[in-house]
Amino acid sequence: MNWRLIKDKLAERSFVLLLLSSVVVILLILIGLAMKSVPLLRAESLLTVLTDSVWSPLKGNFGFLPFIMGTIWVTLISLVIAVPLCVLASVYLVEYASEALRKMVLPLMNVLAAIPPVLYGVWGVLFVVPILSDYIAPLFGVNTTGYTVLAGGIVLAVMIFPIMISIMVEVLQTIPQELKAASLSLGATKWETITKVILVKAKPGILAAVVLGVSRAFGETVAVLMVCGNIPQLPKSLFDAGYPLPALIANNFGEMMSIPLYDSALMFAALLLFVLIFGFNLLSRLILNRLEEKAQ
């Protein structure tokens, strides 16, 4: 057989092997976490574990609702802050900014994405927490230390800015110039062209950027645990402390493992986080497919 065809076959089979290896690793992680979670689920029903708000390992109470709500609060706050700002910044960079500015800002986004999360956490402790406790919370008549879900959401929003802006800029740059020219030639203003043509056409790509941002927000650990307060309670306002799932795992793994079911509870927290991220990505992929079909 021709050597070139042999190399082609070897490359094809290598890629298949790598793909299968990736799937197997994911399945092994899922199975491992599920097996480790079984002791907790034998002692308590799944519904009780997910809906109970009492977390007291010494008394055998493992209610995960405060951690689930802490994760949701922090993630939603970060998205509310990050998505509009990232969309507007991306539109400005693509449609209004000069080429020189664009070439300066986009590499900076890559640098920001490479900064270790602990530095964002330190920034949050030094600047965000004091500003919340000394200036923002008093405006609403609230007395707080500043270690709140709002602080976690702000820090997380800054962390997901780079990845979202980088993807959104790339998506907006793929919109055909002919489409913009057609809209402008029909009498639309530039802003009307952006809102009614460009953003509509770029919607699937923008949604994909948001999905990647949320995936990072769900799993972010160090920076969030440094500013959230880490109190296992149900947050009722932006100025309440929270305790997201990744922070629970990072803070407690390796400690207090002599307590019955404690290690199983932490494995269940990891399994819950895995399922949340996997389910969110799957749902987002389905929505993206539907949007792409409509766009065609």
UniProtKB/TrEMBL annotation:
Transmembrane segments: 67-94, 106-129, 149-172, 206-227, 265-288
Subcellular location(s) of the protein: Cell membrane
Gene3D superfamilies, per the entry: MetI-like
Main location: membrane
CDD domains: TM_PBP2 (cd06261)
ABC transmembrane type-1 domain boundaries: 68-284
Keywords, in A-Z order: Cell membrane, Membrane, Phosphate transport, Transmembrane, Transmembrane helix, Transport
SUPFAM superfamilies registered for this protein in UniProt: MetI-like
Membrane topology: Multi-pass membrane protein
PANTHER family to which the protein is assigned, alphabetical: PHOSPHATE TRANSPORT SYSTEM PERMEASE PROTEIN PST (PTHR30425), PHOSPHATE TRANSPORT SYSTEM PERMEASE PROTEIN PSTC (PTHR30425:SF1)
Family under the similarity heading: Belongs to the binding-protein-dependent transport system permease family. CysTW subfamily.
Protein name (database record): Phosphate transport system permease protein
Source organism: Sphingobacterium bambusae
Taxonomic lineage: Bacteria, Pseudomonadati, Bacteroidota, Sphingobacteriia, Sphingobacteriales
